[in-house]
Amino acid sequence: MIKNPIVCSIVSISLFLYLSGYLWAGEPGTFDYFYSEPSTIGWIIAGIFAIIAAATIFLTGGVASPIVVSTGTFIGNTAGLSGIAATNYGLALLGGGAIASGGFGMIGGVALLTTTLGFSTDVVFDFAISKASSAYSYYKLVEESKNLLTLPPPLRSTGSDRYEKAFLKIKEFRKEDPVNSNFNQSILKEAINLSSLDGLEDKDELQIRVLLSYLNFATNEYKEAAIQSDLSIRLARKLEEIRTLPAFLFAVSSLYEESPDFKLLNENYFKYALMAEPNNDLIPLLFSIYLSHVELRFKGSTSSYFTQVAEVATEEKINKYFDQVFSIILINYFKSLKIEQQRISSLCLTDNLTIKDSKDTLSAVKKSLSEYNSLLSDGQSVLIKFSSVNGNEDEKIRQINDFKQLLDMYTGDSARLNSLILSLKEYQENITKYSDNIKRTYDSQDESNRSLLIWYVISFLVLLMLVVYIKIKKTYPFRSYSIKTFKKK
Q1: φ, ψ at 122 (rounded to 5°)
Q2: What whole-number distance in Å separates Cα of residue 40 and Cα of residue 286?
Q3: Distance between CA atoms of 98 and 95, rounded to whole angstroms?
Q4: Which stretches within 119-160 are classed as H helix?
Q5: pLDDT at residue 48 tops 70
Q6: Termini Cα distance of the chain
Q7: 49 CB-contact burial (10 Å; exposed 0-12 / middle 13-18 / buried 19+)
C-alpha cells in the first residue's frame, strides 16, 4: 500500500491519464472506433453481422439460379470466408434489395438477380410511364430506400456518459432482424432522443455527433444525417482527427438533395472515407451501400456515375478488396442493364393502349436504349480492369468468363431492343396517320354539313318570310283607287 501522498497523487494522475487514453484509444470519427471495443477489432464478424439481414433477401425470396449462388460464393471466398457464410455474405453485398428503388420490393431483389445473371429476354417486371421517368421527390426517394442495405449499429460501448446511455438503448437492437424492421427502427429512434449534446465539447461531442449521423442515416432521415455528418466532419477537422465514417455518411445522405454535386461527393467524401482508412474490412460493404443509393438517386442514367465509382475502386491503397469491389460494381452494371432491358420490353410490348399510344413512352424507351448502350460500353471497360488484376486464379478466371459471357448476351440483345423501339415508333406513326385521315374526313364532313346547314337556314328564312307576307296580306287586304275616284269626291 502506497502511503506517500505525493506518490499517491502521481499514481492517481497517471492512472487517470492511462484510463483516458484507453477510453479514447482511436478516433471517434473512424469505422475502427465505431465498430470495435478498445483493443478488439473483429472486422469480419462485424461485416457478416452488417449484411446478415440483407442475406435474408436470398434466403426468403426464393431459389436463386446457380450463377447467382456461384457469384455470391466467389465474393465471399475473396473475403476469406467459406461455405454458406461466404455465399450469404456475397449475395448480400450484391444488393438484392436495391431493386426496391424500382418499386418491386425485397422479393423482387432475388428475381432481379436471378434474371440478371441468368439472362432472359422474358418480361418479369411491368413498367408504367411513371417508373420510366419521374420528377425528383425527397420523400419518395426516402420511401424507396427503406429496403436498401445499410450499416449496422455501433459495437463500441465505452465513451461519455451521454454516449453510454444511448448505447444501452442500442443494445436492445435485435441482431436477428433487419435494420429496417419496425422494432429495430424504434430502438434507433429512441437512441436519437437519448443522444444529448448539451455541454459536450471536443471528442465527447464528436463521438455523439458521429453517433447521431449514423442513427439518422439508419432511420432514413437523410437530411438530418447530412447535417450531423457535416458538423462531425468540421469538428474532426478542428481536432485534427480522421473522419472516415461521417465522410461516408455525408456522401450517401447528400445524394438525397435535389441537385447533388456527385463529383464533389465522390471525390472529396466517399473516396476520402476509403483512402483515410484503407484497411477497413467493411470497404466492400461501403461500396455496395453507396452503389445502391446511387442507383436509386440516378435511376435511368446510372452508367456515368458507376464509372466514377469504379475509378475510386482502382486506387492502390484498397487493392486488397479489389476482387470483391469490382464484382459488386460489375453486378450493378448488369442489374442496371436488366432494368433498362425490362423497361424497353415492358413498355414496347404492353397491351395498355394509353401507354402504347403515348409519345412519352417512345421518348422513355429511346432514353433507356441510350443508357443501355452506355452501360454496355462502360461495363466492358470495368470488366477489362477486373480481368487485368491478379487474374490467374482458377476461380477468378471462371468468374471473369461468366461476366464476359453475360456481357456478350446483353450486347447481342441490343439489336432486339432497337427493333422493338422501331416497331413502336412505326406503330405510333401509323396511329398518327390514321388519326390525321380520320380528322380530315371529319373536317370534310363538317364542311359539307355546315354548307347544308346554311342552305337549310336560308331556305327556312325565305319560307318564313313568304308565310309572313301571305298572313299580312290576308289580314290587311289592299284596295285599288283611281285618280278619278278622288276627283268625284
Answers
A1: -65, 145
A2: 21
A3: 5
A4: 129-132, 138-145
A5: no
A6: 168
A7: middle
Residue with cell 448539451: 198
In angstroms, the CA 131 to CA 395 distance is 38
How far apart, in whole angstroms, are the C-alpha atoms of residue 155 and residue 200? 22
pLDDT tens, residue by residue, 78-101? 888 888 778 777 877 876 544 433
Distance CA 102, CA 145 (A): 10
Cell 461466404, located at residue: 86
Residue-wise pLDDT for 439-449, tens only, equals 565 666 666 67
Dihedral angle sign, alpha carbons of residues 57, 59, 63, 68: positive
Would you tell me the crossing angle of helices 394-412 and 414-475 to the nearest 10 degrees?
A: 30
DSSP letter at 176 equals: T
Sign of torsion over alpha carbons 356, 145, 265, 309 = negative
Measured distance CA(439)–CA(445) in Å, rounded: 10
Amino acid, single-letter form, for residue 226: A
User: Which residue(s) pair with 40 in the sheet?
Assistant: 37
User: Minimal CA–CA distance to 304: which of 371, 219, 387?
Assistant: 371
Which residues are CB-contacts of 127 (< 8 A; sequence separation ≥ 6)? 342, 343, 346, 347
| β-pair partners for 37 | 40
What does the pLDDT look like over 236-262, one tens digit per residue? Answer: 999 999 999 999 999 999 999 999 999
Q: What one-letter code names the amino acid at 427?
A: Y
Residue pair 309/290 in contact (Cβ under 8 Å)? The answer is yes
Burial of 411 (C-beta count, 10 Å sphere; 0-12/13-18/19+) = middle
Instruction: List, in order, residues 6 or more apart from 185 with CB less than 8 Å away.
Output: 179, 219
* Residue whose C-alpha is closest to residue 333's, from 275, 378, 391, 287: 378
Nearest to 399 by CA among 72, 36, 89: 72
The C-alpha atoms of residue 291 and residue 280 are separated, in whole angstroms, by 18
Distance CA 385, CA 160 (A): 46
Q: Where are the alpha helices (DSSP H) in 119-243?
A: 129-132, 138-145, 161-170, 182-194, 202-218, 222-238
DSSP 158: -
Q: Which three cell numbers stand for residue 184?
A: 429495430
Q: How far apart are CA 210 and CA 214, in angstroms?
A: 6
Rounded Cα distance between 162 and 194, Å, is 7
Is pLDDT at 383 greater than 90 in this prediction? yes
